[in-house]
Amino acid sequence: MKTEGLFSKTMLGFGFVFLYVPILSMVFFSFNNSRLVTVWDPANSPTLKWYGRLFDDSAILSAAWLSIQVAAMTATGAVVLGTLAGLVLSRFGPFKGRALLQGLTTAPLVMPEVITGLSMLLLFVSAEQLLQYLFGWQFNRGVATITIAHITFTMAYVTVVVQSRLASFDDSLEEAALDLGARPAKVFFRITVPLILPAILSGWLLAFTLSWDDLVVTQFVSGPGSNTLPMVIFSRVRLGVSPVVNALATIMVLIVALGVILSAFLMRRQEQRRKREEQMAAAG
Amino acid sequence: MAITSARIGSRDSQGRLGPVWTFLFRYGPPRWTEYVLRNWSGQRLVIAIPYLWLLLFFLVPFLIVLKISFAEFSPLGRPPYEPVFQWLDEGALHVKLLVGSYVYLFNEPLYVSAWIYSVKVAFFSTLLCLALGYPMSYAIARAPPAQRNIFLMLIILPFWTSFLLRVYAWIGLLKTDGVINNVLQFFGIIDAPLAMMNTSFAVYIGIVYSYLPFMILPLYSNLEKHDNTLLEAANDLGAGPVKSFMRITLPLSTPGIVAGSLLVFIPAVGEYVIPSLLGRTDQLMVAKLLSDEFFLNRDWPRASAVAIAMLLLLVVPIMLFQHYQNKELQASKK
What we know:
The complex is a heterodimer. By secondary structure, chain A is an all-alpha fold. Chain A is 79% helix and 0% strand. Chain A has eleven helices and no strands. The longest helix of chain A is centred in the last third of the chain and has 41 residues, at 243-283. The model of chain A has no long low-confidence stretch (mean pLDDT 87). Chain B has a domain at 108-333: MetI-like (MetI-like fold), CATH 1.10.3720.10. Chain B has a two-stranded antiparallel ribbon with strand order 1-2. The longest helix of chain B has 34 residues, at 109-142.
């Protein structure tokens, strides 16, 4: 038993080294003065010069702003649609076409991105032709098409999160409210939503991150002039390492780490408060 | 008969609505609203919203891809393919399906080698992920509860940072004057730098690195639920640790292994970013082939055929994944 535990613990340690060395090295070399990035220049380092360059780089800054807008719209849309789908699948019992809906919500989780991207683009091209033919409308691919495509593949993640949260408690509270005469919409907003709020929040963050990060689908469905941050990064790093990208990566890692630590802290505090309340309820 | 815009809404000599218009009124919006009001409860409307979205933006696009994969390529057209369905003047529907794109996929050596290479890379990356991820999940599941959450957070944290940037980080480590070569040379382990960039090795590293959390999380949620008393009983009955692992833990964790492996294998077959940044330039993977066919050659029918073929290849793994996903949800409900 001892040796087995030792082996898996060693692998765990090795795995964490494997997961974090690349990120830490990226952070470390963002402070390097040399343009060669991985060749440390001891005379002039550490330096913040690449951070200065980053904030003068209008291509990166405007792409980042576009990505933030798209990701925020995507996350909001995905949360609305994904919550409805999760609710339907876990609370509405059997109905005609339920299996198809279940399939349609889990398929995007594993669908290779090139297939999703290609099929979305071909849909938009067909829609362009159809609208042109019927009404003479013209629309250009851009923020709207990117957002629709992102909502479609991120809502699956929200659905799974919401569905598993709903599955973790039974519907007796909702039923009680219905028995007491509350209308279904009221039950949903007053009881179901507060109960699944953590799932909705983490679904929003997940959808935001996935949209913010997506390259392949975006490349297919974006139009001229609408470059998101991953597209700009990809075109830069194809040519090799770039110290400005290292600086950008460092900032992003910092934001994520702070966010995760903050959420862990908040969750722990909430947990403690709940425990205290339970104890007080038991005592009183 | 073609419906022209002049026809819609026009009245004939007696001032009656034309046939199209009456048809629309009889079966059109007023009737629909009536039908919806009479038969549809709020519940049905709630079902309809996500359903319609997914049908329109997920299912219909695949039908369009399927259609275009049978079209004829016309390099100068906008869009660059001949129509598959055409209304002839006599009121007949002319359907022209070409299987040329599919025949090409399975005969052209470049394509055949790309298919084999993609499946091979995905398969061995999945094995590597399993070999590293299983012991890691096991160690996490066995750790005291307070540590477990920290370990899990550390596994998930890289997942929240950009995928693209994490792949990029490996360029800095693997390239000729990169970190790994510099360190190895500094300690005198190697004399000349190793060529690691643009190799299959780099692709394996990139895929294992990016997809490891997808292997660990389903495995962990399975291993965590195991009943320790089973192992104690086996121990009491004289089974050694290896035997009780092989006979109890491993069989019980099959659903986790399958779910994790599929979550790695399926996207790895269609991986685009990792081979583009780290991989060989002389051996393409299928996803790169698809995007080159689409963006460089503008051959939409062939790109669509590649997508359909890839989907057919992945249908069985995807169905398996859905099966396990549903079983998992059902189990958590009980």
